[in-house]
């Protein structure tokens, strides 16, 4: 039974997606938390970046993005699909934004899910103090960690922040042995989609204790219209997604230069 204090914890979300077969094992419900410390040029959820509640125009209509909820309110939706979780090994996944921008809320969601016997996962860049991350790990079955580049200068140019903290946290999470750490790479043209850059990330991941899997996530433009709806410029305008052959070439390079199991997509 979930603790009353956990159930009353409040946080800010912008979406809940049911019946997902990505972002963790089985059939899952993904809760998208608002707020992020990065400003990735290619972000497909720009409405997640600001913690503030915003107005976005979609299909010619204004839409409020962001709402404050309790853990109990979130689980009114999450628990609707218990039968699917049981049969498939699925459960709850936190995404964003960056879940670690709301650490108390993220921890309460994950702890509540575990108390109910659900599988848990979190998609995150690990851009927070390790003390914050370590307080969440006991409630996390799978950590889907984005590593976007190994070069700190290029990382900062395209995301707004350097990557030293994230890479150090990846090492600490792996060394803790407290969760299944899976590395994910958004493969972005002009940023990191060369063989050398992807192999550099794979070789870094291959040295992390216990890490066995890496996911290459192809660039897409599904969030492009959201920028216009928010009154913002899309900085990747004109950039074309990679073809299947290019992604297969990068996958082959990972397999040939590491011991990781590599897949295209999440």
Features of the shown structure:
single chain; 266 residues; alpha/beta; TIM Barrel; nine-stranded mixed beta sheet; 10 helices; 11 strands; 35% helix; 24% strand; globular
Description:
By secondary structure, this protein is an alpha/beta fold. It has a single domain (12-264), classed as TIM Barrel (Alpha-Beta Barrel). Helix content is 35%, strand content 24%. The chain has 10 helices and 11 strands. The protein has helices spanning 4-8, 71-78, 82-88, 103-115, 130-136, 152-159, 164-176, 195-206, 224-229, 244-257; strands at 10-20, 28-33, 54-58, 61-65, 67-70, 91-95, 119-124, 142-146, 180-187, 213-218, 261-264. It has a 9-stranded mixed sheet. A two-stranded antiparallel ribbon has the order 3-4. β7, α5 (130-136) and β8 (142-146) form a beta-alpha-beta unit. It is globular, with a radius of gyration of 18 Å. The two termini are 31 Å apart. The model has no long low-confidence stretch (mean pLDDT 96).
Ordered list of secondary-structure elements with their pairings:
Elements: H1 4-8, E1 10-20, E2 28-33, E3 54-58, E4 61-65, E5 67-70, H2 71-78, H3 82-88, E6 91-95, H4 103-115, E7 119-124, H5 130-136, E8 142-146, H6 152-159, H7 164-176, E9 180-187, H8 195-206, E10 213-218, H9 224-229, H10 244-257, E11 261-264
Parallel strand pairs: 2-6, 6-7, 7-8, 8-9, 9-10, 10-11
Antiparallel strand pairs: 1-2, 1-5, 3-4
């Amino acid at each position: 039974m979930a603790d009353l204090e956990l159930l009353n914890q409040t946080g800010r979300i912008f979406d809940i997606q049911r019946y997902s077969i990505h972002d963790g094992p089985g059939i899952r419900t993904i809760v998208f938390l608002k707020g992020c410390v990065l400003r990735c040029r290619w972000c497909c959820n720009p409405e997640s970046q600001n913690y503030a509640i915003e107005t976005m125009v979609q299909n010619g209509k204004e839409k409020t993005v962001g709402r404050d909820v309790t853990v109990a309110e979130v689980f009114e939706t999450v628990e609707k699909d218990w039968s699917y979780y049981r049969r498939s090994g699925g459960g709850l996944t936190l995404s964003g934004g960056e879940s670690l921008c709301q650490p108390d809320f993220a921890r309460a969601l994950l702890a509540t899910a575990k108390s109910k016997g659900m599988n848990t996962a979190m998609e995150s860049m690990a851009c927070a103090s390790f003390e914050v991350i370590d307080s969440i790990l006991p409630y996390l079955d799978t950590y889907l960690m984005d590593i976007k580049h190994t070069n700190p200068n290029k990382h900062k140019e395209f995301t707004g922040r350097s990557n030293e903290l994230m890479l150090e946290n990846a090492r600490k999470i792996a060394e803790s042995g407290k969760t299944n750490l899976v590395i994910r790479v958004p493969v972005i043209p002009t940023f990191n989609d060369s063989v050398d850059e992807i192999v550099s990330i794979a070789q870094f991941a291959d040295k992390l204790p216990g890490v066995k899997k890496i996911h290459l996530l192809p660039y897409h433009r599904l969030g492009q219209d959201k920028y216009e709806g928010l009154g913002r410029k899309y900085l990747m305008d004109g950039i074309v997604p990679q073809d299947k052959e290019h992604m297969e070439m990068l996958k082959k390079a990972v397999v040939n230069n590491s011991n990781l199991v590599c897949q295209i997509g999440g």
